[in-house]
Write a structure and sequence with these properties.
Layout: E1 2-6, H1 10-19, E2 24-26, H2 29-35, H3 39-49, E3 54-58, H4 64-75, E4 81-86, H5 89-100, E5 105-110, H6 113-122, E6 126-130, H7 132-135, H8 141-155, E7 160-164, H9 169-177, E8 182-185, H10 187-194, H11 197-212
Parallel strand pairs: 1-2, 1-8, 2-3, 3-4, 4-5, 5-6, 6-7, 7-8
Helix pairs in contact: 1-3, 4-5, 6-8
Bound molecules: SN-glycerol-3-phosphate.
């Protein structure tokens, strides 16, 4: 499963990239606005940190002509940019055209299997199915992931299911269990994936026992 970090903060991408376990970044207009830097400079900084990763950057146009114009501009900034387009009739129509031009699309704000079907048929590279915002209104966001993964597999669509709007590590684990292709998560959730109290306890015991025995690795410690 690919792991993406969902952020507008360049420094979070830099730290995550140093760990060597992330495959890309997703941004959105709210995350970019919160970061407080320019859109293009933020996206290009992320592309530079992860030249072999996938960097998703979103249009704000809502009509077909505006989506096409903005998507072509954003895609021209760097080869590893995937353009985010909202799940609307205009977004679907624009996605068909963009795919014919070789521009990769991350169809975002997808909440239902029906929307995911349309996104797959439009040729979306990624289908961003939001789970946390569904959980936030007391429904089960992960159920949609299960159905969309089954649909993509059953019909052999090339689209990858991207689990978005993740709130905690169990969303990542459930996404993995369901065979989702990608999970994008806030930096805080990515950090949480590392930790287990028994790891901390076990490591401390190893070091205590080693030091108590007066053992060493190097013959001539520096
Ligand atoms: O960036 C797309 C998605 O992951 C954002 O979800 O609910 O955290 O705003 P949310």
């Amino acid at each position: 499963m690919k792991l993406f970090v969902d952020t507008g903060q360049v420094e979070e991408v830099r730290q995550a990239a140093e760990w060597g376990i992330i495959d890309g970044v997703t941004t959105n207009p709210s995350l970019i606005a919160k970061a407080g830097r320019g859109f293009k400079e933020t996206v290009l900084a992320m592309c530079e940190i992860l030249p072999h990763g996938s960097i998703s950057a979103e249009v704000v146009g809502t009509t077909v002509p505006d989506i096409l114009k903005e998507a072509r501009e954003i895609a021209s900034w760097a080869p590893n940019i995937v353009v985010k387009v909202p799940m609307t009739p205009a977004g679907i129509q624009a996605t068909r055209q963009l795919r014919q031009e070789g521009i990769r699309v991350n169809m975002t704000l997808v909440f239902s299997p029906a929307q995911a079907l349309l996104a797959a048929k439009a040729g979306a590279t990624y289908i961003s199915v939001f789970v946390g915002r569904v959980d936030d209104i007391a429904s089960e966001g992960m159920r949609t992931i299960e159905e969309v993964v089954q649909m993509v597999d059953a019909y052999g669509f090339e689209s990858e299911v991207l689990v978005a709007s993740i709130r905690h590590p169990m969303h990542v684990v459930e996404a993995m269990r369901m065979g989702a292709h990608i999970a994008t998560m806030p930096f805080k959730v990515l950090e949480q994936l590392f930790h287990h109290p028994l790891t901390d306890i076990g490591l401390q015991r190893f070091l205590e026992d080693w030091n108590k025995a007066g053992l060493r690795i190097f013959d001539n410690p520096a």
